[in-house]
Amino acid sequence: MAAFDYFQSNGVTDENLILELQNDFSEKRLLLVDGKTITPEKQRLLNSLEDASNGIRAIFAVDMLNEGWDVLNLYDIVRLYDTRDANGGKPGKTTMQEAQLIGRGARYMPFRDPSDDSLPIDKRKYDCDVANPCRVVEKLHYHSAHNPRYIQELRNALVQTGIIAEHYEQINLFMKDDFKKSRLYTKGIVFVNERKKMAELEDDGTLGKSILDKVFTVKMPTGKMATGIIFGDNASAEELTCLTVPQFDFLRIGSHVVRSAMSRFSTYNYDALHELYPSLKSCAEFVASDNYLAKLQVKVIGKYASLAEYGQADKLYIAKELLRQLEPLLRTRGKTYRGTKTFLPLPFNKQFRDNIILKVNVSGGEKEFGRSQKNPANIDYTLDLFEKDWYAYNDNFGTSEEKALVKYIDGIMPKLKEKYDEIYLVRNEKDVCIYSFDEGGAFEPDYILFLRIKGDDAKYDNLQIFIEPKGNQLLLKDKWKEKFLLQIQQMADVHWITKADSFNVWGLPFYNEEREAAFNTDFKESVIDFGALKTKNKAWKILKENSISPSDRFTRFLPLYSIQAACGYFDEYEEPEAEGWVDVSSLPFTPNREMFVVHAKGNSMLPKIKDGDLCVFERYHGGSREGEIVLSQVNEYYEEYGGKYTIKKFHSEKTVNEEGVEVHSKIELQPLNKDGFQTIEIPEVNEAKIATIGILKYIIR
After folding, report:
1. What are the backbone angles phi and psi of residue 171, rounded to the nearest 5°?
2. 614 to each of 181, 566, 582, 601, 648, how far by Cα in Å?
3. Residue 602 in 3-state DSSP?
4. What's the CA gap between 193 and 173, in Å, rounded?
5. Among 641, 619, 640, residue whose Cα is nearest residue 630
6. Cα separation, 96 vs 161, whole angstroms
7. Within 10 Å of residue 243's Cβ, how many Cβ atoms?
């Protein structure tokens, strides 16, 4: 019916539909292939069936079942012969081959999800989401023209090979009516971040610091090695001598030579470059600007010790070789994603579905999956969630770990109700997706806990906490997800505040039933003791340098400096004496020699950073600072730090000057706490009077 509704709404008449079908399945759009005598042209058509330019709509295949033939957009298989080789109810060889063909055709879904481009293109996505309209493009139909009994034999083969489950069950999840009357459902919001290409997030108008700092080595084809192999010790000194041109700026090759070399690569046309570097104005800028190719450092090894001794053909070779070495670095930049640190609000009732239809395999290995928590396999998990006012949906059909988590929340509910005005645990059935800060990995946490409490200043604090139950077999594989959850509280930037509400977005360590005691400790410190967390620092052990082995420095421990010492260190490059060393080995980041710790002072960065917090910074070498919290040295005196230093959020605005170069028109160092704290505005003319010392990486509390 959905198809006919589509035809009607788009004005497709029956006559037009008939004509289109006749054209789609005309003889020129049909292909006959024989596994023993397939021609190169037919092979090309078979290998390009997913291309938009490929018009083949139906394939008559003879003896193609053994060819390992994968078709990504296969929707119908029609069996035109009567052979049956089942024996005693067991599938025969032909039946098993056809089952494998179905498996190859059905396991792919070669289209991008129109509402979530983070989902993989080449995998099925909607097996458990019966109500999703995109399921239609994942359905495969098998037709047996003359032998309907064969369908049952084929189904047995599909079950035997594990392609389909022996028994599926349809489950209906729905939000309870009382919950749909709640403030969270009617007016509440849920915070999520976005996934963006690194090229977009780190577009600072340069090629990128890691590339600009690199020295490219080009070895000229001199014939020295071949001569040495042939003549050995008898080779002439001239042939065996290899000279080096000291590193020089790439543009010394000549801009016309560089442009000529660029024309040999599709990577270096303007459209491709602009996708990688959105601020780039032209190919001419890419060649001539010090921020791009002009100042790249090149070292040439060959017959001469001076660049001037090489001819134009040699210089073209040098340019092409450098661009060849640079190309994979640019491709990596284009394919690398990051999750944004900014979490933006979405209406709760638009993001979460009221009704969800799930199709689950109840014969799988997880005996709890697909069973109601009201009647679980393990009676210890028994809970009637329809009667629990804090649970949004009518039931829980999840795994044993998911049921154990819900049981844990039920057990700690009395303490939660003593503290919070609103408490709701919401099951996330792929309605909310967040993206890791490190690599942009898509993650759909199983549960989100929403809490609301009235604060001391008459405002409400709203907590949104991502929780992921995890079985033992997945703890190591999904470690990146736990790292991301722990980073959220430190790094998430929540762009939303009202006169009546403030918002906090957190993640907790994995919940694992065997490790419930450790989870309970974290839950108590973060959630039950939330008020104390806002005003009280956790004691953190700081050790003296002589008690730290050299191998542990910058690997397990980071130095603690005063802000004045830290700024002086990175200004003068003379290492100051550390006040102590802080153990960071248990924290969700990898220490390095560029990192250091300082004590935050004052309240200008509340609620993220409070007075006395230990802040981990990484030395700033260049690149985008937009939206980052930075340690800066400025031209004004700040009482908080007893000098010209401050910790603030960085914001800049850019414009293009008369020479066509993008420059800062304004820089702002913004406090997060607007109550009595002012933004530091630095005009373009005073840009040199600000020095960014480091970028905030973690807050230890």
Report:
1. -120, 135
2. 42, 13, 9, 10, 15
3. coil
4. 26
5. 619
6. 8
7. 14
Token duo for residue 55: 């018009």
State the Cα–Cα distance between residues 617 and 597, nearest whole angstrom: 6
Report the alpha-carbon distance of residue 50 to residue 420 in Å, rounded. 54
Provide the residue type at 174 as one letter: F
557-589: pLDDT as tens digits: 999 988 766 665 444 445 667 889 999 988 888
Q: 316's torsion region: left (phi>0), alpha (psi -120 to 50) or beta? A: alpha
Tokens representing 513 are 């039933």
In degrees and rounded to multiples of 5, residue 598 shows phi and psi of -135, 155
Distance CA 76, CA 101 (A): 12
Options 3.90.650.10, 3.40.50.300, 2.10.109.10, 3.40.1190.10; CATH for 542-700 is 2.10.109.10
Nearest to 437 by CA among 114, 697, 116: 697
Average pLDDT of 329-354? 89
Predicted confidence at residue 228, as pLDDT, reads: 41
Between CA 698 and CA 182 the distance in angstroms is 35
Residue 533 has pLDDT above 50, yes or no: no
Domain extents for the chain? 2-167, 183-193+341-530, 199-337, 542-700
Give the pair of three-digit tokens for residue 301. Answer: 């090894």
Domain 2-167 CATH class label: alpha beta
CB 243, CB 305: distance < 8 Å:
yes
Number of neighbouring beta carbons within 10 Å of residue 508 = 22
Measured at the alpha carbon of residue 414, what is the angle toward residues 409 and 418, in degrees to the nearest 5? 120
Q: Where are the alpha helices (DSSP H) in 385-446?
A: 400-419
Considering only the C-alpha atoms of the chain, give the largest distance between any 2 of them, rounded to a whole number of Å: 94
Distance separating alpha carbons of residues 193 and 344, to the nearest angstrom: 6
- Type of residue found at 187: K
Q: Copy the structure tokens of residue 694.
A: 């480091």
Place of tokens 């850019």: 654
Q: How far is CA 293 from CA 205, 283, 303, in A?
A: 12, 10, 25
- Mean of all residue pLDDT scores within the chain: 83
Residue whose structure tokens are 């001391």 = 456
Q: Which residue has the tokens 């009357």?
A: 181
The helix (H) or strand (E) run that includes residue 181 is none
Cα-to-chain-centroid distance, residue 623: 20
What percent of the chain lies above the pLDDT cut of 90?
Answer: 40
